[in-house]
Amino acid sequence: MSVYLHGLSTALPSHCLTQAEVRERAGVIFGGKYPQFDRLSKTFDTAGIEKRYSVVPIDWFSADHGWKDRNEAFIEGAKKLFVTAASAALDDAGWKSSDVDCVVTVTSTGIATPSLEAQVFSEMGFREDIMRVPVFGLGCAGGVSGLSTAQAVAAGRPNQKVLLVIVEACSLSFRADRLQKADIIATVLFGDGAAAACVSTDVPSNGKCVALGQGYQKMWPDTLDIMGWDVDEKGFGVVFDRSIPAFVTQEFADAAAGALKAAKLDHAHIDRYVCHPGGAKVVEAIEGALHLEQGSLDAERETLRNAGNMSAPTVMFVMKAVLDAGSTGQMMSCALGPGFTASFLPFYVSSQVA
């Protein structure tokens, strides 16, 4: 059963933080108590990021925060992003919120119970019999894995309308108390954002046709310490191992080969890989692992430059940029996340609806 993309949107919170002001603020916060900060701060200049967006203003980061106020800020910011992204995707698809039969919600940066789609139920105008599929803990792989989940739900429920919403507020995990290198790197890279997609087995009636294939994941054993969260009374603390670019160089090609084989494709069939840009070094490592021309992942670098690494929704920003540029043909989306896991989803873009 073929599944099609009917609508796609991205959303950013209102507080724009330039890389220069984040570096300056981080210097004030870390400089006097973390001896390695001056050396590590050079990564602000080499990260390929010019600005990020946050659900809270930059002054928020200078105060002390515990789990309660971090999560309150997450719920407030995530609800706004959810409504903005979901509403835009529905408009793009020509759907009403009351048309939606199932909503898949992906996040890893805060806890909401009831989950986010329930928090915004009345504001969105969802039906009372809507099926809810909240997904937590996928991290940076959540965009591709979330779209794969939405595709699988749609394939199993023909003609029903599935809304995927991905929301992350990575900035709220900023920690100045642990004095770990991972916290500096997170400060360099991460921002907040959201994306949404509308999928169904119904064939789009006009415009470009995007057919979604079946998702594929590979998980490596004994890699739990590469990426994730440490959780304590202060909140989430990022686990972000320095080995990630080297791991990508060594392992990503075999994982991609497995995804291609599962989709009955090979490397020569792929017109464009659509990748999660975890960081400048990770983008370079993916290009090398897949034997792509260096610099070819231009939409990935542009997304990183203008919004940073937003975790799960970032790859959806890349996907939207690629589609908006008019690209067609066989594509493969891919991302890496906690587990350690590689997630893939093939999709085919044609200029005319069949």
Brief rundown of the structure:
The protein contains twelve helices and 14 strands.
CATH superfamily of the largest domain: Thiolase/Chalcone synthase
Q: SSE string, helix = H, strand = E?
A: EEHHHEHEHHEHEHEEEEEHEHHHEE
- What percentage of residues falls in helices of 4 or more residues? 25-40%
What characteristic shape results from the CA principal axes? globular
Helix/strand-derived category reads alpha+beta
Classify the fold: give the CATH topology of the largest domain: Peroxisomal Thiolase, Chain A, domain 1
Major sheet characteristics: 10 strands, mixed
From the N-terminal CA to the C-terminal CA, the straight-line distance is 15 Å
Number of strands: 14
Count of folded domains: 2
Q: Please state the average pLDDT score.
A: 93
Descriptive report:
- This protein folds into two domains: 3-200, Peroxisomal Thiolase, Chain A, domain 1, CATH 3.40.47; 209-350, Peroxisomal Thiolase, Chain A, domain 1, CATH 3.40.47.10.
- It is built from twelve helices and 14 strands.
- The chain has helices at residues 19-30, 37-40, 43-46, 67-93, 116-119, 121-124, 142-156, 181-189, 244-262, 280-289, 298-307, 314-324; strands at residues 3-11, 15-18, 51-54, 102-107, 131-136, 162-169, 192-200, 209-212, 216-219, 227-232, 235-240, 272-275, 329-337, 341-350.
- The strands form three sheets. Strands 1, 4, 5, 6, 7, 8, 9, 12, 13 and 14 form a ten-stranded mixed β-sheet that branches. Strands 2-3 form a two-stranded antiparallel ribbon.
- The longest helix is centred in the N-terminal third of the chain and has 27 residues, at 67-93.
- The radius of gyration is 19 Å and the shape is globular.
